Amino acid sequence: MVFLRINKQAYYKTILGGCASIGVMAIMMTIFITNFITFIQKEQLKVITISEYDDKVDQIAFNNSNFLFAVQIEQDNFIENPYFNITLNQKVYSRSQQGDLQKRTESIELVPCTLDRFNQIFAENNVNFHQQFQQLELQNFLCPSY
Q1: Each residue of 93-117: pLDDT tens digit?
Q2: I want to staple 142 with a disulfide (CB 3.0 to 4.6 A). Which of 36, 42, 78, 110 is the partner?
Q3: pTM for this entry
Q4: Cα–Cα separations (whole angstroms), residue 24 to 11, 15, 29, 123
Q5: Which domain of life is it from (predicted)?
């Protein structure tokens, strides 16, 4: 068996190596503690959105009979005591014949989702949505009130 020994020692330690190890550990601990505090205080929220636009858009009118979506933040007791308030604003842009752009913003209230609202949409296609509603726990989500 061949051993590599320096000054008759199996391990070679230097002051520089020890200081570098302590420095790296201090930096790693600082990063971890800072990220942990940011997470606990909910200072930073990352949201990823993808927007795709079609050049040939017809006039679309969303209502209870053709469109419904549900929104939730994963937390206990979201409906009664949410960490964040979710708002929904609808913006309508129209251009007059003179070329003036008119902007209108409407706030849409979000209310707890009910099975009846989903059944209005799925009943037209003879789909029973009860099982999916229970499985996804959609009663704990918010839906627009339009």
Answers
A1: 888 888 888 899 988 888 898 888 8
A2: 110
A3: 0.52
A4: 20, 14, 9, 62
A5: Eukaryota
